[in-house]
């Protein structure tokens, strides 16, 4: 199959005017100017017209369980108050609500061009009855042990039982110790060991709020008091470590780790990241809409890019943002960081997320998976990457695994 479009955006190379992509099975086998591709390759031509053909978007951090919570929680005085509100909402919902939420979330992701999503699953028992999604979905099993530390053997057996019961589908599975304030050091240790043995990715929330930073750095603050009232063992907060250092102390942070948020970092944290060999460094997911909702401190993007960290973009959940559109997330990021090259913003929403999942996608080049979308081409904008970021129209054409999805 030959796909022709007004512009092709490979992400790993310069845009191609009047470009074409050859797809064989589920793989991209060639890309270039349409005249050259047509002369060198046989096959049916699908002309996408005056559109931009680009890789599908990769949402590197999402909570589909909470899709029904859009605008259900107004911005709170503190992160801790928001935790109290979302916990109250979760107690009012049942398995059928969460299954419906996941289904609606998949529909919204597809509508806005996401072909791969990394989803934190808080209620794994619902997965056996969730209809298979056409999207590539990584299900990260959320793990929490606030009031008591579960023995490592019990944790390992529970993880293995979960993965054995899940249906095979596009995507994969990973582990997600929730955050340093809800997952104990021993839990991080057993997750680190198990993920290394099984070759699985690990995603965790870390350094999300100033209150979390105060809890671990100074053993004080609103979140510290809240967790103390819940019965959490608090002695691990008395070592004057940052949240990132706390995780580093209890796990083997490596290239299979994905660190969500990373909003509260000090210079010692940056030095710690720099000390990790580049090929072993974890990826970082920034969630611009959620970051704005909570009014977090400025994300240290320039410093992290200076360290050559792999920075991805995610939407987080609809409990802290208003849309599952990665175009919205790209716009929020680009508006707040106007020094950024638009091409780099697009890479964060495609290639970098795929890299975090060790997925050969998020780019248009031979050998990559044929996960593609086509959006309207705005000829009034000189920079095609900027026009991608500016897109506000639902995605009407999508291909995943070499198959065109019907809308």
Textual characterization of the structure:
The chain is an alpha/beta fold. 35% of the residues lie in helices and 22% in strands. It contains 15 helices and 16 strands. The chain has helices at residues 34-40, 79-91, 95-111, 152-165, 185-198, 210-218, 222-230, 243-250, 267-275, 288-294, 301-306, 326-336, 342-348, 351-356, 384-390, and strands at residues 2-8, 16-24, 27-33, 45-47, 51-55, 57-62, 114-121, 136-143, 171-177, 202-206, 257-261, 283-286, 311-313, 372-376, 397-400, 403-404. Strands 1, 2, 3, 4, 5, 14, 15 and 16 form an 8-stranded mixed beta sheet that branches. A 4-stranded parallel beta sheet has the order 6-7-8-9. Strands 10-11-12-13 form a 4-stranded parallel beta sheet. Helix 5 (185-198) packs across helix 8 and helix 13 (342-348) crosses helix 15 (384-390). The relative contact order is 0.18.
Uncertain segments: none
Instruction: Please give the alpha-carbon distance between the first and last residues.
Output: 20 Å
Structural class: alpha/beta
- What's the number of structural domains? 2
What shape does the CA trace take?
globular
Give the DSSP E fraction (strand runs of 2 or more residues): 15-25%
Strand segment count: 16
**What is the CATH topology classification name of the largest domain?**
TIM Barrel
* Range of helix content: 25-40%
Reported CATH architecture of the largest domain: Alpha-Beta Barrel
Average pLDDT, rounded to a whole number, is 93
CATH C-level of the largest domain: Alpha Beta
Treating each run of at least 4 consecutive H or I residues as one helix, how many helices?
15
Radius of gyration using CA atoms only: 21 Å
- Main β-sheet, in a few words? 8 strands, mixed
- CATH homologous group name of the largest domain: Metal-dependent hydrolases
